[in-house]
Amino acid sequence: MNPPDLKYSKEHEWVRMDGDTAIVGITRFAADSLGDVVYVDLPEEGSSISQFQKMGEIESVKAVSDLFSPVGGEITERNATLVEKPETVNESPYENGWLLKVTLSDSAQLDKLLTAEQYDEFLSEGNN
Amino acid sequence: MVPFAGWDMPVQYSSILDEARAVRTSVGLFDVSHMGRVDISGPDAEAFLDSIYSSSVPKLKIGRGRYGVICNEDGGIIDDCILYKFGEDRFRLVPNASNTEAVLDWLDRWNSNDVSIENTTAETAMIAIQGPKAQAILQELTPHDLSSLKPFNFAESNVSDTPAMIARTGYTGEDGFELMMSADKATSIWDALTERGAMPCGLGARDVLRLEAGLLLHGNDMNTDINPYEAGLDRFVDPDRDNYIVGETLRRIRDDGPERKLVGFTMQGRGGVPRHGYSIMDGSQKIGEVSSGGFSPTLDSNIGMGYVRSQYTSPGTPLTVDIRGRTADIKVVTLPFYSRRRD
Prior knowledge:
Chain A is built from four helices and nine strands, in the order E-E-E-H-E-E-E-E-E-H-H-E-H. Chain A is α+β, with helices and mostly antiparallel strands and 128 residues long. In chain A, the strands form two sheets. In chain A, strands 1-2-3-9-8-5 form a six-stranded antiparallel β-sheet. A three-stranded antiparallel β-sheet of chain A has the order 4-6-7. In chain A, 39% of the residues are buried. Chain B is α+β, with helices and mostly antiparallel strands and 343 residues long. In chain B, strand 10 (154-159) and strand 11 form a beta hairpin. Chain B has helices at residues 16-25, 45-52, 100-110, 134-139, 186-195, 203-212, 247-256, and strands at residues 2-4, 7-9, 28-31, 38-41, 65-71, 77-87, 90-94, 116-119, 124-130, 154-159, 162-167, 176-182, 199-201, 260-267, 279-282, 285-296, 301-309, 318-323, 326-333. Chain B contains seven helices and 19 strands. In chain B, the strands form four sheets. Chain B has a six-stranded mixed β-sheet with strand order 10-11-12-9-3-13. Chain B has a six-stranded antiparallel beta barrel with strand order 14-17-16-15-18-19. In chain B, strands 5-6-7-4-8 form a five-stranded antiparallel β-sheet. In chain B, helix 1 crosses helix 6 (203-212). Classes of the chains: A alpha+beta (128), B alpha+beta (343). Chain A binds chain B through residues 35-36, 38-39, 41, 57, 59, 61-62, 64, 83-84, 86-87, 90, and chain B through 11-12, 15-17, 204, 208, 270-273, 275, 294-295, 302, 324, 326.
């Protein structure tokens, strides 16, 4: 169900590596649980974030949830589409609904993340 | 599913915003069986209700319902309801789920005579069908001519060969009907309506729609510490009746004028959602509080209602809301945010 080539966090974020750049988003499970996303608050481009720390907020019709960064580094780009069309997160969580691009501070961080198989297992254990 | 006032209620069936859009453009279906149904009857029923309801009950015509509030000794709103008149000696009151017990306590307290008060909530069910296509779909299931049923009128007829009360009322700002029937028949009526294209809608869509329509939610936008003049419900209150037990209190409140009032507001851009309890600010000074807020799919912007000091109620007044430390610009607007086109 979750793309096999991505890495996952237990906070339901995913990471796709593109050269030195990590693209970050939330998983289908997270998007479905939140319901209709109406606002995404992300840190500024050029600012730094730390792995597993709060980096912003995502708001659905129902509630506000904290976003935790699955990786640490410098933010090079925010997904501008989400300003006017936050619902893109629901429609396409793994592609057009990505949140941030980050230059990793240390590639060893990726070892602390789950594989797709491990994340699927994590979900099926009801750890959510 | 979430627990709500002792009922298990779906917040959404599919997507809250898709469900809300379906009601605005087509037709949606709500299980509102959690709402109370209280049958009040007897020769003194009309006089009794006139003493506790916010508007004149003798003036209410048979076959009609009237929105109103039930106020406590201080003028605070115990609940808002619709009162339906079947005859001078037979009425049905529909309070909110979470206030049904409080309303029953209030009725019992003032019922010194022989009025029968029967809570039929558990034996009956209530379904709302709402949207521009509601009449066409419901008409397929009932012999009653729905085109002759005006807003806030009701009829006793059959739906899917089951006796039902059909009221042209709702809580969405759209045309539609609320149906009350025996609880064991509700599922088959629900299924017949969904088979004909009505989209099941949950509490989430109901909240979005009522907010767009500028309709208040008890517990959010009013409570026992808020009186109907603060809530902007003046037109539903007639305090000048000698037998109205809180009439004198409400007359005094009306004549003094409220210090705070409910206003609607819109927000520029797609910032965070203004939610219940957030501060409304004039510069650095807190001058009010959000009572309800949300994203409006119909207006494609964030909207809300809140209580502000009386000098800030003029439409166009620029204010801000503190959204968890972020400042969002808002503008006071006239309610409702949305009214349907009436052709």
